[in-house]
User: Fold these one by one.
Assistant:
Number 1:
Amino acid sequence: MMDDYVFYDCLTAPSPRRARIFIAEKGLAIPTVQVDLRHKEQLGEAYKAINPRCTVPALKLPDGRVLGDNASIARYLEEIRPDPPLMGRDPVEKAVVAEWNAIAESDGLLAMAEVIRNSLPGMKGRALTGPKDYDQIPELAERGRARIGNFFELLDRRLSEQAYLGGEAFSVADITAFVVIEFAGWVKLVPDENHSALRSWYEAVSLRPSAKV
Amino acid sequence: MMDDYVFYDCLTAPSPRRARIFIAEKGLAIPTVQVDLRHKEQLGEAYKAINPRCTVPALKLPDGRVLGDNASIARYLEEIRPDPPLMGRDPVEKAVVAEWNAIAESDGLLAMAEVIRNSLPGMKGRALTGPKDYDQIPELAERGRARIGNFFELLDRRLSEQAYLGGEAFSVADITAFVVIEFAGWVKLVPDENHSALRSWYEAVSLRPSAKV
């Protein structure tokens, strides 16, 4: 069904993993191109012509237009393939999923990126994604570590009351938070024994077939 | 129609202004409570019981549930009051609006907040919103200034090709970018004579009745 689309991916990076899991949850198969972030392929002219923001994921539509981030890819796929719903099933659930996805991005993903991009030697000069170079700020890495700790606490409280972040159903918000936790492990930030609700949820999400992609 | 809702607002802050403009564009009137951020009312127990993340905007629904950020409030209002559409009219436009709203948040709003919260003396210890205190990082203010310059360039390029950020129709992405530019003026970051498309768009948006709220 989606043979005339192209998904631009990178197997080692958190952002395209979010889209990959979303696509798998929808039961879709999309022709995929790997972009070699390690060798800065995303900054080259060829990829810049596809996505001028020089980031993955991106999704090329049959008419040649390109969706260039997780927000647009998820919204589009939810519209053209509503089942299973991953962004809520009624007005309130749609809102709550949007809110928890935003929380997972601002308090989780961004804090995790702050740690990784401002501390790893390989990220020197690449403290932010995109075409412009920015120096590392070591204090930001340190602040990011504190924020990830707070994020784990917040998730644990939420998940001791609800099966999933958006309520009773698995959603895009769970995908975002799951990918944050996976990649936070890179810099040795892991939920501990105080976060039992979070750990049970993480275990359950990691057993979904979509987590294997 | 919305007399059994409560909108939690603050007239001097950028985030609730986004929601206020969205509500006005929808032609809605919602009973409103001002939260006094200057005196840290958002960190007090009374407000924390309403929104545990201690941020405005928030929207209390008739059943007592609370939506606690712009993402959820916009999504909910778009569902219950679809006209005029502010989040796109078909799958591709919905996706493009989501993408440009995300760009305006990450490259604009966040950079602007980095400048303001990491440089103004009144923001000492409050470098991030929410219940936890974080120290200012002066390098982050400096980086934010550079990012806002890049953001103005990006918007100007986009708006020399399209009437609005999401395409042909005014949308939530325009609201977010508009509020960023308004508040960036606080720290003397303003589009200059090289940004003529951006300046025309800004002028047009500021003349909409919703910008007066």
Number 2:
Amino acid sequence: MVMRKVAIIGVGMTKVGHLFSESLRSLFSKAVRSALEDAGNPKIDALYVGNMSAGQFNNQENIAALLSDFAGLNGIPATRIEEGCASGAGAIYNGFKAVASGSHDFVLVGGVEKMMDTSTCDATSIVSTVTDQEYEAFLGLSLVGINAMVMRLYMNTFDVGREPFAKFSVQMHDNASKNPYAQFPFKTSMDKAMNSNPVAEPIHLMDCAPLGDGAAALILCPEEYAKKFTSSPVEIIGAGHGMDTFIFHTRDDFLSLKAIRDSARDAYRMAGITPGKVDLMEIHDSFSITAFLTIEDLGFVEKGATGQAIDEGLISLDGPLPVNPSGGLKARGHPIGATGVYQMAEVVLQLRGQAGARQVPGAETGLTNNISGFGASSYVHILRG
Amino acid sequence: MVMRKVAIIGVGMTKVGHLFSESLRSLFSKAVRSALEDAGNPKIDALYVGNMSAGQFNNQENIAALLSDFAGLNGIPATRIEEGCASGAGAIYNGFKAVASGSHDFVLVGGVEKMMDTSTCDATSIVSTVTDQEYEAFLGLSLVGINAMVMRLYMNTFDVGREPFAKFSVQMHDNASKNPYAQFPFKTSMDKAMNSNPVAEPIHLMDCAPLGDGAAALILCPEEYAKKFTSSPVEIIGAGHGMDTFIFHTRDDFLSLKAIRDSARDAYRMAGITPGKVDLMEIHDSFSITAFLTIEDLGFVEKGATGQAIDEGLISLDGPLPVNPSGGLKARGHPIGATGVYQMAEVVLQLRGQAGARQVPGAETGLTNNISGFGASSYVHILRG
């Protein structure tokens, strides 16, 4: 494949939350307008949008044509990617390839999920449709159930308690308290995190990402054009897409996610870097245990050692490897199909030095990781400012 | 964009119908196995799957990872494209670009829809979610309602009766009677077509495509590798993706579909041919009126003249431009997200000379057209045998 270098020249996000005054289309349009304004209003050639389930949440399919029309982009080719919780990164990956291959020059990549117009009970049930309906969800094994079993196994295998997981969540809320786009922009405490209600033992409420509405957008173009639009383009230097078996019980190893390992290997190779070169990252902490496995499978710490590394300050904003300066899925929020795009928008702001109170000083290289289900698929992207 | 020539080296289809003994995954796997066998079992590098609404029909999202795993293709990058009724062609278009750009060599493109596990009433309602939920579907304007208004306008504008539309449907059933994959492989009569129950006047039952389950698959690779696998590769020589406004009432012209015109223009240009060079085509006759507009917007007859052209034998199997030798959506069936892939599989069989009793003699160039909603988007592909 003949590759052009690809830059991000614009980002846009809505605050995540229970946005009852917004619809699927109004949310998406807001993110698009912000991204276009941020990029200096280039003419867009194509749209890729990530969304998990407008069908179930909003009784609306065929959404690429709808969203492009209502966002004022009618007429350009528009494509929806669905890949569960990784739909956002899937849209980025396909948009990246479209620009890299020369298929399109200016590509808008968006992600949107409008989840809160259904009941919390229905929304939780819909989120479970990213797992296997026949072997898992229908039998009552929800995503939180899978994560609870894995967290128990992790705790037993590596002899750790719930404290390191709670500490991760406290850090996420610390970060979110400095993020104007965050759903929960407030700090919490170890006491509150440890004593929050149990959801599926050993997972408590403060180990879980919330439900929420949100939309985010990016504008990609060939690096050679980027300087016309911004003085601080951010380049996508690595991209990888990994897969694993779909059903949890068919995995070789319950404490390691092959899809993350494979996507990271490919992204590091394309970028020509080792994990040590990464200055900060946005990862998929749908549950605190998922974050632990991810930090390990991305190659930053040994299996079982994440808790100790957090204790030693690894992931804090002023530590050697800040994780989720946005507050992550836990506290920035997790509007499913938009999450991968939020992750990348945050890293772009960080690499531009525009992340305000949550800025990681001197960040030059950032990584994003977005997974579907319990790691049935995974995308890793690496950015350089 | 640096383009490699792309060939189709394998096709697979299930018979369309109410397949109560099949699931989403078993259906898809059958089509994949047939396509792999047809191509001589190449090693597949990536999967693109078109599906409209496994979320609403089957309570299942994240289906690319699921389907690749159950079809025995675990580990390769798998991507789901959702674009309403054009999801199948959307998957083809993205698979075509992946091979053309050099991103992947051997790409499996599939389409699947398992619609009949819900009630007919629910399925009809779900199909309406490809139209605008806020401005159309919620207010009772279903897809058949839109088509009925357009058919009435067409009949008034061009002073034609229902007979030419019925004649189209009779031709579709004639063709399907020769197709082992067809949902309705039987002939019908003008009397039966004219006197079938009204659905939304002037549309009667025999003007409508049925609901049904089905899956189809294609294997694409660079043309330079194709000869190793088949003595009769079929080349994709043109591809176009057109868009229109999403809501019906915002269109400039209710009797012409801009998305079809634009996608056809781009596909003809890429192929370097005029409509006159097309030997046969598979088009999107979700309703007989849709077929009339399509035949006109693809550039084959003047506006309003399709009925007369059908009377003169234009579209019959031994006519100058056979339309839907498979029986079309009307009689081969319309498993929504799979339809675009069925269309292309049929054209491949025709260009190979393997279409049995429905073979169009000497066919060298074929065209497919797959649209979403009432032409919110459209794909045209042109194939050469």
